[in-house]
Amino acid sequence: xxxxxxxxxxxxxxxxxxxxxxxxxxxxxxxxxxxxxxxxxxxxxxxxxxxxxxxxxxxxxxxxxxxxxxxxxxxxxxxxxxxxxxxxxxxxxxxxxxxxxxxxxxxxxxxxxxxxxxxxxxxxxxxxxxxxxxxxxxxxxxxxxxxxxxxxxxxxxxxxxxxxxxxxxxxxxxxxxxxxxxxxxxxxxxxxxxxxxxxxxxxxxxxxxxxxxxxxxxxxxxxxxxxxxxxxxxxxxxxxxxxxxxxxxxxxxxxxxxxxxxxxxxxxxxxxxxxxxxxxxxxxxxxxxxxxxxxxxxxxxxxxxxxxxxxxxxxxxxxxxxxxxxxxxxxxxxxxxxxxxxxxxxxxxxxxxxxxxxxxxxxxxxxxxxxxxxxxxxxxxxxxxxxxxxxxxxxxxxxxxxxxxxxxxxxxxxxxxxxxxxxxx
Length: 425
Description:
Elements: H1 2-10, H2 56-72, E1 83-88, E2 106-114, E3 128-132, E4 141-142, E5 153-154, H3 161-164, H4 168-182, E6 192-196, E7 207-215, E8 220-221, E9 223-231, E10 238-239, E11 250-251, H5 258-261, H6 265-279, E12 289-293, E13 304-312, E14 317-318, E15 320-328, E16 335-336, H7 355-358, H8 362-376, E17 386-390, E18 401-409, E19 414-415, E20 417-424
Parallel strand pairs: 4-8, 5-9, 10-14, 11-15, 16-19
Antiparallel strand pairs: 1-2, 2-3, 6-7, 7-9, 12-13, 13-15, 17-18, 18-20
């Protein structure tokens, strides 16, 4: 046993500590691996100085566009300098020898290899057979695999589907699709015709239209179809340039910013009304327009003039307009005089004067001013801040007795009323 272990140990095959490495290959080919290319379209013709002895360079020139197209089939962004290609005599890589295209076709084999220091494509193809056409013949290229992405054209309801087939955007897209597929430049009428699944005399309408491309002439062959969407054009926008908003004279909220002002519902409603008057359209802020001002949004509001700019957005309206609003400091809150009191003054009855004259008595007025200040802390003046009345007819002459005086606030300092009695002696 020891001898067996010694022999196994000499080969690193002892039962303990052995490591087995298994190569793993899931045979997955990368999307940009040139090995994925299995065919290359034959050139329509080969231009040669001597068709009985066509050189490698002449063959490579004829194949250039189709080789690039084949590479772009696996890597759309590939360019000619992302790879190299060569032409061989057979699938074993035997060096190319000049071929005779005067008497018939000839088979050559093409191998494409990724350029060094490039990553757009990797690795290489196998030897791909390409049959070169006989001199004087043209190999038509199939358009069966061509594609055109949905163009989303505007439905011209005043034109027919026959007119749609003359649309240059549509024609250009077909030409581009054919070139991508075949490498050939083509023109409508000469090389292909267009048809659709709609009656040519019917007017265009929103919806899907299936376009059929049919090859003709001696360059291309076959057909392909694709769908396009016809959309109704967006309605024309109405200009708000002439809209107006009258000065709103809003209260300056000094605890809020100018950015907050632009969210004020009274302001927004006025803008909506101004736009409707100008355009007849109902609009909403954010969706159809935005508001800005000539003030920094982070600054707090202050009394003064603010210029508001209204900018249209969306598909209803267009343009801008501006207007000014005045921010005013809010009037200070009034203080109530309802709790004010005046003690009985015990004034002398001036029988030669009326009760209306009594209300002008300075002693009486000073007592009222003092009572209001005691209650509110404010200095006031008769006529400006309050009026006096009594329970006696103003035209009657004063007489001894009790008179009830009523004080009524006015102006923007105080509010309310209070009464007190005085004795005329």
